[in-house]
Amino acid sequence: GPAGPLGPAGRASTPAATRAPTPAAAPHPRVTAGVSVWLDGLSRQRLASGRLAALARQGRIAGVISDPAFLARSLAGGSCYTGQLGDLAERGVPAERALKALAVHDIRWACDILRPVHEATAGVDGLVCVTLDPRLAHDAAATLAEARTLWRAVDRRNAVLGIPATAAGLTALSACLAEGINASATLVLSAARHRQAWDAYTEGLERARAAGRHLASLASVASFPVSRIDTAADALLDREGTLEARAMRGAVAVAAARHVHEQYERMLGEPRWHALAARGARPQRLLWTATTVPEPGASGLLPTRYAAPLLTRGTVTAVTEGTLEELDGLNGPDGLGGLKARGLPGVQETAGEAPAGPGPGPGTYAAARRLLGHLQWFGIDHGELASRLETEALKELNDAWHQLLDRVTLALDQGPAAGDGTA
């Protein structure tokens, strides 16, 4: 199993080199449209059952995200980790190292499954994103040290390390890329933060180029947790209570995402980026996360309310398996049937806007700017809201990390007997 600085993963680990990669599939309509969909949630159960491999083989997903909260639930609700946990307990491995061993094993396995996608897309997709310890988010040196250790242990070119987009985190992101480590900015909730993440990415690429590195092999995304914005904005609009305020419920998040995407399109036209692209660099794509609609039935919103309108060429949308099923059910058996270069499904906007397609364009961008401007009528400052949400999101990520560590500690405390279950 995976060894190295983090220690062996335990006897549950099948040597990653012996695993057969997933055979390449015929391109899914989304792929030919330049749209990437990744699965939100990596677990041993999805790996061992063959579910992740099947989704990749069918071309329905092109990447996966490892989330600490999802991993904690997987540890609590299944037996796939018990063999490895029992082995780690028997050897007296402390919880922090045990957690890393579990994660490294899953990441390597997922990377191997997605390797054909990575190769078929010349490194654009087939990526496995893993969250670095968020407790280090305000310590650039510690984040970089953790990234180096995890990168060496995973030893896969299609792994990407997720770093919260704090000032220290973005400093570490640049340093990672300069050393040839794939790194992404997470918890980006405003255009201003997105600009900082992009600048950190381009700085890292420039340093990598100066060190003689091959820029085309470096991967990064900037993750934007969409539904968080509506959850917060809707509460403020409800407090306002007017018909005009209620008409904007459920519309702010997609508008904010489109506003960030407009900035992304502008940045692709900057001379600094052109110089890097000429050397083979790829853009730091926007990754739409938190696309699940909370209580879709109760809210009256479709389960694909966030995922469908943000399917845009050159971006990535992360979805749960449930949302993926809904997405693939749109417009026929092929999933988003008829999807061609820009043939993406239109959605009816709320807040009195005309139906708008999901992709870039002056009309959708202008509508998004207008809607965000309307928030001021109700005393809502979009920039202040985004800043508050970034702080809250980082706290929640830290809480999820602590819960995950507690779960691992509990399993280890049960001793070697924990390994008697099905691994």
Automatic annotation (TrEMBL):
Designated name of the protein: transaldolase
Keyword presence, Cytoplasm: yes
UniProt keyword annotation of Cytoplasm present: yes
Coiled-coil residue windows: none
Spans annotated as Disordered: 1-28
Role this protein plays: Transaldolase is important for the balance of metabolites in the pentose-phosphate pathway.
Transmembrane segments: none
Broad class of where this protein is predominantly found: cytoplasm
A GO cellular-component term linked to this record: cytoplasm
Name of the top EC class for this enzyme: transferase
Signal peptide bounds: none
Short name of any one Pfam family annotated for the protein: TAL_FSA
SUPFAM superfamilies the UniProt entry points to: Aldolase
One GO process term, biological-process aspect: pentose-phosphate shunt
Keywords in alphabetical order: Cytoplasm, Pentose shunt, Schiff base, Transferase
Pathway note: Carbohydrate degradation; pentose phosphate pathway; D-glyceraldehyde 3-phosphate and beta-D-fructose 6-phosphate from D-ribose 5-phosphate and D-xylulose 5-phosphate (non-oxidative stage): step 2/3
Sample GO molecular function, one term: transaldolase activity
Alphabetized InterPro entries for the sequence: Aldolase_TIM, TAL/FSA, Transaldolase_2
Species this chain originates from: Streptosporangium nondiastaticum
Xref: Gene3D superfamilies: Aldolase class I
Record-stated family: Belongs to the transaldolase family. Type 2 subfamily.
Enzyme Commission designation: 2.2.1.2
Compartment(s) of residence: Cytoplasm
